[in-house]
Amino acid sequence: MIQLCSCVPAVLLASSSIISLGWADVLIIVIYFAMVLGIGYYLSRFTKTGDDFFLAGRKMTMWIAGLAFISANLGSLELMGWAASAYQYGILAAHWYWIGAIPAMLFLGIVMMPFYYISRTHSVPGYLKLRFGESSRMLAAISFAFMTILMSGVNMFSMALVMKVIIGWDINFSIWVSSITVLVYVALGGLLSAMFNEVVQFVLIWAGALLIPIIGLMEVGGWKGVIARIHENFPHGDYTHLWSTLGHFRDNPMGINWVGIVFGLGFIISFGYWTTDFLVVQRVLSAKDLRSAKMSPIIGAAFKMLVPFIVILPGLIGLAVMPGLVGQDQAAASGAASYNEILPLMMARYLGPGLLGLGITALIAGFMSGMAGNITAFSTVWTYDIYKPIHLALTGKEVDDKHYVSMGRWATIVGIFVSIGTAYLVEHAASIMDYVQALFSFFIAPLYGTVILGMLWKRATPAGGFWGLLAGTLSSIGMWAWVRLDPRALSIIAGSPDAKAMAEDMYRALWSWLICVAVTVLVSLATRPKPEAELVGLVRGCTEIPSEGHLPLVKRPIFWAGVVFAAFLVLQIIFW
Amino acid sequence: MHEDHCISIWFFIGSLLTVYGFIIVIASLPAVFSAAAQPHVVLAQLHAGLWWGAALLLLGIFYVITYWPAKKDQQHSES
């Protein structure tokens, strides 16, 4: 799940770099850039058709699709942002990796993937076109394209600021070098190149980040030592329990209760992001067959469950060994170090020559995989869901596949340059960072309501789908504006005046989803449904899903989904 | 993943890990022989760079050998 780092303003105010690099570190970073560009150049010869460019030829194995699926999400400041959140909120931050991801990813693989895959859609808005018609597709496509390009720019700017603070790189240098690198390898090889590099980046993230918690645990004497040191440092707070402090908003550092976590995060935000955000779904659509498409999110879920080890645990170890880090406002006022920089601080604490370069490369790899994910998703949605229908409406004739590949490449180039423009825009308006998180919740939660009703309820009509999506989106924007104009509204939306920003996001998502579903149901009941013959391949009950009964147990996606879900439950009990 | 045509992704990953492992081992060696060369990090005496670099190097070599492109071409021509 995406966390937009609140670290940026603090980072802006930092005056000197945290880490200085040696020859080995610089060499490792240079080799990384050479490798990703080389992969893009090499793969350009395999990218000829629209399916090649936008869906990697639909020939990916389950492992590649699964790792790229998780890697595209692992960018976007995940490493920095959630390590900082773990320092701020404790182990509660792990909810965004477990209940905020695992059930939704398994649901995507087992329940929703067959409809995406069998319908042969190029994108999530493309599915809406098949199910609900052109107006729903256009609404979803435009909002997604807008959100994606803004996210890409914000990530780019944030990465540049982080690099400035950590190793002293000039902001312009970071923005241009990273974006031109992504531009070259995505424009050359399309999704195939992006996914290849995402798998490389995934391995590098682990290779670069895994040593921090290992050495950290050795320093403090294992997990029990971490708990003991945190209790010693913060005797009045509970930072090490996942569920037992969620009875009331006041009982935990995050200011949220279990209803917000279970229903807002677990059922709405998480399901919305993992099952309808095309940035991640696109990776799974590239799988070579239906079984691979179903297995990819399950493989992704298994790895996602492990990510807290390299993201949340360093934040918790930071609470144990570096108490006293402060929030961004305090850091800005006092000049003290901010917990938003906890990950680079931990790198500086534990990583020697060469390892430091690998750690920095892990951060750069994370940022670039997120950026490439946004750009490939944008170019596909732009080409197939915005440009193609408009071109068809204006000219009245279909054009060949090469035309769309060419448009996809131009969309990649233009998308990168618009993102760079957005990055500079953000530089002059830091509060946009907060608004982007809100933008994300405006569009994803209602979209999930529309898609899930479309897939599971035959009676949902085109008018119901469109008006439900529009009502959900507008109500989400309305609730956000209401709280900005009158802060007392928070106690109505989130159910308590003690709710904090994170709780507001969760409850707003929950309400907007409910409104979307209610409007879709009411309008559908009042309008005429599509004939069942038009719903074949799109809706449960009208679609024959190939049986897996003939496969041995260990080859069935449902078996592995059960294994991953059992492991998820065990983790909840261990850290209860 | 276009397995019929292009070099396996795991070969690229193996190559990168091999090179990285080698660089990290070389960069970590001075600290093994001289306490003065030890980096100013916690638990520097464990020489984490040396062990981690060696692990990456071995893993990388394993992947390079397993997914060496000529091997796949040979398997294709035999089949």
TrEMBL record, chain A:
CDD domains: SLC5sbd_u2. It is found in: Membrane. InterPro entries: Na/Glc_symporter_sf, Na/solute_symporter, Na/solute_symporter_CS. Pfam families: SSF. It is a multi-pass membrane protein. GO terms for molecular function: D-glucose:sodium symporter activity. Keywords: Membrane, Transmembrane, Transmembrane helix. Its main location: membrane. It comes from the Bacteria. One of its GO terms (cellular component) is plasma membrane. Coiled coil: none annotated. The chain crosses the membrane at residues 26-43, 63-84, 96-118, 139-167, 173-192, 199-218, 256-280, 301-322, 407-426, 438-457, 463-485, 506-526, 558-575. Belongs to the sodium:solute symporter (SSF) (TC 2.A.21) family. This is SSS family solute:Na+ symporter.
UniProtKB/TrEMBL annotation, chain B:
The chain crosses the membrane at residues 7-29, 49-70. The keyword Transmembrane helix applies. It comes from the Bacteria. Keywords: Membrane, Transmembrane, Transmembrane helix. This is Uncharacterized protein.
